Amino acid sequence: MTLWAQYLFFFTVLGIGLAVWRVLGAKASAYQSSSKVWMKLDVAGDTFAQKMVSLKAIIRSCPITSVPQLVNDGYLKFNQTLGRPFALPTPWVRSGALMVLPPSQIPLLLRPDKTSEAEWINLHGLVENIQLPYVVGDPDVYLNVLQFEVVRRKMQSSRDMSRLAPTTAEELGEAFKDIWGVEKGWKTINGWEACGRVIARSSQRILFGLPLCRDEYLLETSRQYATALLVGGAIINCIPLAVRWFLGPLVALRAKYYQARFVKILVPVVEERVRLWEADKNAGPDDFLQWMIPIVAKEGSSQLEPHRIALRLVSLLIPLIYAICFVFAHCVFDILGSPDCSDILEGLEDECRRVSSRQSGLAASENVNALFRTDSALRESMRMSGVSVTNLFRDVVTGEIDVGNGLRVGPGVRMTFPTQNIHLDPDNYENPLRYDAFRFSRQFENAKEAIGERELTVTTTPTFLPFSYGRHACPGRWFAVQVMKQALAYLVLHYDVELVGGPAKRMALGNTMVPAVNTQIRIKRKD
User: Fold this and answer.
1) Got the DSSP string for 146-188?
2) The model's pTM
């Protein structure tokens, strides 16, 4: 067992023990909340009296290891059957429970954040989901999210994608050759690490350019940081608030270590870029770091502090790099683990070879946009292999919001949606537990028979929510999808790939689906 695995095991067991103690203490915290709304809600899982029957029942219903089962129970009994919200017990939030809204309330996400009636925000849930306050010592970095303003301005339009496509295509080609190799013989590699490092290099090329994006020490540091932050955040979320003040900082030490290492490398680069910008406002490379400098400068000289800018770049490792790594790796695993693997790979290669033969190949965004089977394979994987059980968090700041069924929610209640269940609901998708790579492209293969509007991976709908929905849909999804399509196309064109062992399996830790980091694949370079 590796040191990190031991670390994870220790705090997981500790968290389970503390949660069991919390369950046995007297009553679930949800019932102790001062908010009257909890008294009107059903609770997912067994009742408190049933939990007292045996230790086995306690562990089975523990809100650390069994969130998927608890949410599924509430979804079927209350969300789906009655159209009502339910309370999900969790040590994550102060109230001791989340309010899980039914799919019928997804249109609420289209409302303005602030109205004359009430105001709600999504930022608190996002920040606390990975527990950034325990890792990032500067609250301005995660509360005043200027870095995402850069994403909105520079990484959304078709013109942006056209500008970025040649750079990511070039870096992906070099990264695959360097990391996956060019040997013609079969070899076995860790699929999670191999997929992640390729995506990380291409994404970091956009973040801060050459030659830093190819620095192996920095790449490994960023990978370790992302893993430590995600898993560490999941562990902290499992620790009751009564002792989190003490245990949380201990769990966060690993992420803080890699963050400090990353920032130490970046600060000299940031200092040089700031000097370059101050000397000539139009000078500098065409990358995220250079785009960010004039935007943060408008907020005052304190925002130009190199350490703060470096921390803003580090904060993007999760949404712009790790999230893309997660989706790409699991898409590869889902394809290779499918009974239809051979047919899927043949269909993808046929499309990718045809499209890549066009002028500029996969370095042209208009050609990448034509990879409809590839897009469908990614969308289907995101539907099946999401990173969390519930998502789309909302916290009411002022006033009260009507969520139906005679319920009005005020401050102190965190709301969320059962996104995993929505994605796996047979009412939304035929045969939802089967990975059907061409589910979203098949009906459009024959233009004469095509019915309806094509749903691409960047298309958010009430039944497809990985990129959120409504006013806070992910602004970086066009970049993320373009990179993943380029990467998957390069893979099927240049490598034969096989899964070692059975399909990749993931585990739940609180609300987080921990990725299958030990999945092995066999690869060889094609002739």
Assistant:
1) HHHHHHHHHSSSHHHHHHHHHHHHHHHHHHIIIII---SS-EE
2) 0.90
